[in-house]
Fold this protein.
Amino acid sequence: VDQAGGPVQVERALVAARTQAEHAAAVISRVREFVRSREPRRDARDLVQITGTVGELLRLEAERLQLRIELALAPGLPEVYADRVMVEQVLLNLVKNAIEAMREVPAAQRGLRIEGRVNLDGEVEVRVCDRGTGLSEEQGRQLFSPFFTTKSDGLGIGLAICRSIIEYHEGRLFFEPREGGGSVFGFTLPPADGRGQA
């Protein structure tokens, strides 16, 4: 009988680790390829439209969890200067994570809200607020480092890529605990201010 931690287990663990690393590398190169092959096109974009698209794409997933995606965008929000596909990807990722974070939470306590407002610096700020179990301080610190993940089967590249996309847009991606429990993931984008034609 092979003991725990014996050669067979170690070999198995190494093979699994190598497979995961190769899979992660393949995913990253695909994403890089996508970003490279698609010349980013930044122009004036309506956030209401972007959030609407993302909400529609994730509606069924949210319904399965008996969850309503609440949209709370300030009226008269200015258009943002952004690449629509890239910003949709970031928002999609953050909303998917928020839905995922509430899987274990009793249905009555689940709540997902997408907020949009102009912050004090004049940037347009989008916030995805969930009522999941939240993150520890240590997790909060490591969040945006590549390969950090709280999911057992996650690759952890999502947030690092999201941050790169938002920084490319001259914005920032941030995390804060949500009052009353849960998490807030948000990002800022510059207003279009006549910089691009819609």
